[in-house]
Amino acid sequence: MSSSPRRVHLAAHFPGVNNTTIWSDPRSESHIAVDSFIHMAQTAERGLMDFLFLAEGLRLREMNGKICDLDVMGRPDTLTVLSAVAAATERIGLAGTLTATFHEPYELARQFATLDHLSGGRAAWNVVTSPDAFTGENFRRGGYLPYPRRYQRAEDFIDAARQLWESWPASAQDADETAGAYEHHSEFFDISGRFDVPRSPQVHPVIFQAGDSDSGREFAAGSADVIFTRHSELEDGKAFYKDTKGRLAKYGRAEDDLRIYPGVSYVLGDTDADAAERAREQAYAQHSGATAIATLERVWNTDLSSFDPDGPLPDFDPVLDGPEVSQGRVKHVKDPVATAQRWREIAQAENLSIHDLVVREAPGVAFVGSADTVARQMNQYIQERAADGFILIPTVVPGGLDEFVDSVVPRLQEMGVYPDSYAEEDPTLRTTMELGGYRPATEWSRARSTARAAATNGQEA
Ligand SMILES: Cc1cc2nc3c(=O)[nH]c(=O)nc-3n(C[C@H](O)[C@H](O)[C@H](O)COP(=O)(O)O)c2cc1C
């Protein structure tokens, strides 16, 4: 007996400060002007996507003590941008990344409840646990929380925020003098008072998380609705999907209660061969010689500006004990010495310069091909449980998504795995994402306590 196919979900990433964004493309426009954000959000909405996603960086990146000006620099405030987008759109969800490390629950709960009201229930919060003391200097706290404690704070933060979001009765008309009253006394937050924003349409905005470690995955399973991940290759995606979904049952959750959306890039062409050629050109447009050197510097953790991008790789190992040369950027290379060794071996075996090696080793474009090929491949990921949806990362702002919406979306619709309209009964993001209603704060925390007690008993037995 064959069951009906799982549907494909799509969302749009407003590309930011990474070298994958080709700001030198003649079609590229402002990354700050409101029109750019609105253009991309309206395109995503035309493509019936779930949400527009904004990442966050709270300090200008530096390289070797200087501003890193090879990529797009500067990023306006997420919630302000999303409020502007809310006014120019009707259905697209508004997903903003904000750190639980430096902000306070009352402050963020209030801002997200407001966004949820302004947008008629379209707010989502990507909870990140910002990694560095460099960013923290902006918040008077430097690197005040060691790495494992950041997830503990984030979990406590969401519990507090959820309590605030629930603190008003379902209808503001029913408000009595208990409206907004809350108390949250915990290790990280000792707060009480009255929350001043009435209950918003979704009550809890959709909660995303983006960490990849074991603690990050556990945090997602116990506290989040969605994971934004870099696992965008089919087999790796399946392994990640299985691992994270396998953590849900102990928290009393089902497979579809946590959605996995890899961030994916794509290159389209009239034919597969045409797309492959465009992908090759794009890789060199994304990586100038100077960008290739900077990529190496992040692995070697030392100044390599005297190296020729067209020459060989350094023959020494990365510096492990020196200060970080790259500041303000999430570190994705876990073992620099092993990476450097592997890169040297590849470069030697294939006779590659630094520039060629960096292009070869750049995270692959997940989907390259004609619209038909890309639609079929995306569907395969969904049916084989390598993802529940995709966050598309265009390379050109703001028009890079249009081509996808005009060519791939109709193919997915013809295949019967993508809707022809947004759900009519309810405009909230939870409904668009098929997530169901919010789960009360007490249920989240009770489920985590039960899971932890069971784990402790298991260890003792
Ligand atoms: C795909 C992905 C996207 C992320 N985006 C952001 C971001 O926009 N802003 C930020 O401050 N941190 C971001 N992070 C950092 C995470 O919140 C986290 O601090 C970091 O990955 C370390 O946690 P981990 O060891 O569990 O991965 C991102 C991480 C991943 C994996």
UniProtKB/TrEMBL annotation:
Keywords: Flavoprotein, FMN, Monooxygenase, Oxidoreductase. Residues 447-461 have a biased composition (Low complexity). Residues 27-382 form the Luciferase-like domain. One of its GO terms (molecular function) is monooxygenase activity. CDD domains: Nitrilotriacetate_monoxgenase. It holds the Pfam family Bac_luciferase. Residues 440-461 are annotated as: Disordered. Belongs to the NtaA/SnaA/DszA monooxygenase family. This is NtaA/DmoA family FMN-dependent monooxygenase. It comes from Kocuria gwangalliensis.
